[in-house]
Amino acid sequence: QVTLIQSGGGLVQAGGSLRLSCAASERTFSSYVIGWFRQAPGKEREFVAAINWNGERKKYADSVKGRYTISRDNTKNTVYLEKNSLKREDTAVYCCGATDGSTWSERPSYGYWGQGTPVTVSS
Known about the structure:
By secondary structure, the chain is mainly β. 0% of the residues lie in helices and 47% in strands. It has strands at residues 5-8, 10-13, 18-23, 33-39, 46-51, 58-60, 68-73, 78-83, 92-99, 112-113, 117-122. Strands 2, 4, 5, 6, 9, 10 and 11 form a seven-stranded mixed beta sheet that branches. Strand 7 (68-73) and strand 8 (78-83) form a beta hairpin.
């Protein structure tokens, strides 16, 4: 079991940058794949990015490739999502999740979730 606590987010202008963090106190955190999903108003939650336990494998949604970077520091039990060149369509509530499964981009694969962090990109 793992409890995920998110931080970061807020209001940013288009073209700007923002970093989200997803942390846990449990030592088991380092054994999980951590993924980020987002849900925009009126839309379903969609996959954004995921990273494996040691950070050597990463997966991104096409919509964020080249603009977002996912990384992790297991000494701090934290995964980061660095977001650059933000667009208005990046506005959403972002959630991190933990999975020990193999289907990183599928929401049902994740058994644990953070509390959600709103990100608003203004023009």
